[in-house]
Amino acid sequence: MSTNTKLWGSDFTSTAVIREVAPNVTTVSVPFLRVGLLKFGGRATITKLSSGGLVVFSPTPLTDDVSATVTALGGQVSYLVAPDLEHHLNIGPWKAAYPSARVIGPTSLYTKRQKQGNEDVPFDFSLTATNKGAMELPADLAADFDLEFFDGHMSQEVVMVHRPSGTLMQADLIFNLPAREQFSKVPGDAAAGFWTRVSMHLFTSLKGKSQQRLIWYAFSKNRTSFNASVKRVDGWTFDRIIPCHGDVVETGGKDTFRRLFAWHLAAAEAEAKKTT
């Protein structure tokens, strides 16, 4: 297995924290360095569908321990989700190991991978701004999940909710630094380092305004579409949020979501009133 040690560290086979966060929902939390400096952490979420198949959201390196976890969960990987333009680096190895898995991701990501010369992994469900409203999920996936494509987000986000456990899964929509669980098997403090501390001013607070401002001013590239996506997700029922970067929000996730996206929800309501 070949993995970029600048991103995942040189001892990624022994630093993953694998745990069941809810019935049929298992996380793989690993140390991950953004641009080789920022301690963002990385996380895959493996969910067992009612049908028995597995959904792997934002795959992390496929180590022996992770492979054993997949086997223990039944071994049938039905779906691989590459949730945005940045979260795709391990799709190739996972698809090679589980060739029957169907891949979900933004069309723009597939185009990016082709240009970069990544492995040619076809996307079975390729999301765009125009097709997202009409695309029907397969019955086994739709039985347990809802999906929203944030085409208005700068990273083209795929966000999913696992209805049986009330768990929202997302990549770069919400951060919850410092990434303590993800760096818990690595010497040192997850909050240490100059650039990590700088980044935490933007990505650490779920209650203050810093991350809310970042989302509003930097991440919302198509505000109208972004607002509509936020409103749809707000209609889902969830209490837990699993971010790819930072600690899991174990409870109170819906209140957290509404605080961070209050401006978008207000804007969506205003836009709705204009059309009535």
Task: Please describe what this structure looks like.
- By secondary structure, the chain is of the alpha/beta class.
- The chain has a single domain, classed as 4-Layer Sandwich (Metallo-beta-lactamase, Chain A).
- Helices cover 32% and strands 22% of the residues.
- It has ten helices and 13 strands.
- It has a seven-stranded mixed sheet. Strands 10-11-12-13 form a four-stranded mixed sheet, covered by helices on one side. The chain has a two-stranded antiparallel ribbon with strand order 3-4.
- Strand 6, helix 2 and strand 7 form a beta-alpha-beta unit.
- Helix 8 crosses helix 10.
- The protein is globular and about 55 Å long.
- The mean pLDDT is 91.
Concise structural overview:
With 276 residues, this protein is of the alpha/beta class.
At CATH level 3, the topology is Metallo-beta-lactamase, Chain A
Low-confidence stretches: none
The quaternary state of the protein chains shown equals: single chain
CATH superfamily membership, which one? Ribonuclease Z/Hydroxyacylglutathione hydrolase-like
Compute the gyration radius: what is it?
A: 18 Å
Spatial strand arrangement across the major sheet: 1-2-5-6-7-8-9
CATH architecture title? 4-Layer Sandwich
Main beta-sheet strand count, sense and barrel state: 7 strands, mixed
Q: Quickly name the level 1 CATH class.
A: Alpha Beta
> Helix tally?
10
**What structural class do helix, strand and pairing data support?**
alpha/beta
Give the SSE order as H and E letters: HEEEEEEHEHEHEHEEEHHHEHH
